[in-house]
Known about the structure:
Elements: E1 2-13, E2 16-27, E3 31-36, H1 42-49, E4 57-62, E5 65-66, E6 76-79, H2 93-98, H3 113-123, H4 139-151, E7 157-161, H5 169-184, E8 188-192, E9 205-210, E10 213-218, H6 243-246
Parallel strand pairs: 3-8, 3-9, 6-7, 7-8
Antiparallel strand pairs: 1-2, 1-4, 4-5, 9-10
Helix pairs in contact: 3-4, 4-5
Amino acid sequence: MNVLEVRDLRVDLGAHTVLHDVDLTVRAGEAVAVLGANGSGKSTLVRAVTGLIPVHSGTIELFGTPLGPNAPMHRVGYVPQRVSATSGVVATAVEVVQSGLLGKGRLRPGRDATRKAVEALESVGLGAAAHRPVTELSGGQQQRVLIARALVREPELLVLDEPVAGVDLPSQEAFARTLTRLVRAGTTVVVVLHELGDLAALVQRAVVLRGGHVAHDGAPPPAHRHHAAPGHVHVHPHDDVTAQDVGAPALELEP
């Protein structure tokens, strides 16, 4: 079954065409990384397939249904690129996660919402912080709260936009463990990354964007040799990655 199918996608932001002629198919149970340089269109792609921005032309289908009012968005979990879990209103981690259970026509999260929210927080290693205000949590912990908010819906498709960019090492490791468990349980994952890092063993395919189009769709390219060094933190762009380093001249993965 194709969980996500994109054909001839074009996205314009203002007068600038960000994506053009993009084709992408993601099958049930796959873990797919979207890689590419800054400005290549990675975040625009995942925002388009989740319906957050309009498309100029092309088609997007989720679970066989065209993106639109009838698309089964309740089957999709989305974690945006590094945003704060705070909203100006004092809320605990469990309250933020419970908000993930709200949706179209549902103004209350349900009687078992607290249990589900705590379990989601436990899955990302934050069970002990469930009743702490999110303002007291680190940036990495807040990002994990947002991941738990997406997981509380038990999505069949999980879309994440650079979930470990700029977060602390414990949060990176907790995220890798969580994602491994989800993929093994059958969740389909599409994750935007600068580099594979701890997810290299998990990711089955890499889709590399360059200049708004798909430059590669297949086996993940190997990382630069020094990325495997002990203590290397996979949270930043690398201007020194060359085509030779990834072993495929057409990819040019330098962010």
